[in-house]
Amino acid sequence: MRVLALSGSLRRDSYNTSLLRAAVELAPGGVEVELYDGLGAVPPYDYDVELDGTPAAVTDLKQRIDAADAVLIATPEYNGSIPGQLKNALDWVSRPIRESPFRGTPTGVIGASTGAYGGVWAQAELRKVLGILGARVLEEGVAVPSAAEQFAPDGSLASPEVAVQLAGLIADLVGAASPVADAA
C-alpha cells in the first residue's frame, strides 16, 4: 500500500514536514509512505498557462496522487487558513474537476503549529477544500500545538502522545484505503 505524504510548508526545518517524517517511521509493515518534496516547483495557477499545457511539476503531482492508495497532508496554519502554495497546488490538481486524482482517495489531514491549538483552523479549511475535490477525508486528524516543544532539535518527534495519535491516524487511513487497494 502506498501513501503519498504532502507537507504544506516550504520551510526546510518545517514542523509539518517533520511530522510527516515521523509518519514514515510509524507506518506499519507493508505500507510505503512517500514524502513529496516538489511543492515549491508548482507554479501559480493560471488558466492561460493551463490552456498552453499543464506544467511538468503539476503533472508529476497529479500522477503521484493518482498512484497512491491514500494521501496524508500536513498543513501549517497561516492567518487561520492553509498556506497559499498548498492551496495553489490543490487548485492545479483539481483541474479539470471530473479528473481530479483526489476523487474517492482516502485522505488524512494533520498539522503542527507553534500556537496553542495545533493549526485546527487550517485543518478545517483543508478538509473543506479536499471535500470539494472529491477526496474521502478522514474526520479525525492530529493537531500538534506548541510544536517547538513536541520535536527534538534534530527534527524527530519527541512526544510519545503525538506518536500514538499519529500511528492511530495512519492505521485509520490504511483501513480506509484497504478496500480501494484491494479492488485495484
Structural description of this entry:
- The chain is an alpha/beta fold and about 180 residues long.
- It contains seven helices and six strands; from the N terminus they run βαβααβαβαββαα.
- β4, α5 (about 120-130) and β5 (about 135) form a beta-alpha-beta unit.
- The termini are close together.
- The longest helix is centred in the C-terminal third of the chain and has 24 residues, at about 160-184.
- The chain has a single domain, classed as Rossmann fold, CATH 3.40.50.360.
- About 45% of the residues lie in helices and about 15% in strands.
- Strands 1, 2, 3, 4, 5 and 6 form a six-stranded parallel beta sheet that branches.
What's this model, at a glance?
By secondary structure, this protein is of the alpha/beta class. The chain has helices at residues 15-26, 47-52, 56-67, 84-93, 120-132, 147-150, 160-183; strands spanning 2-7, 32-36, 70-74, 106-112, 136-137, 142-144. It is built from seven helices and six strands.
Compute the number of structural domains.
1
Mean pLDDT: 95
Going by helix content, strand content and strand pairing, the class is: alpha/beta
Strand content: 15-25%
Q: Describe the sheet with the most strands.
A: 6 strands, parallel
The tally of strands reads 6
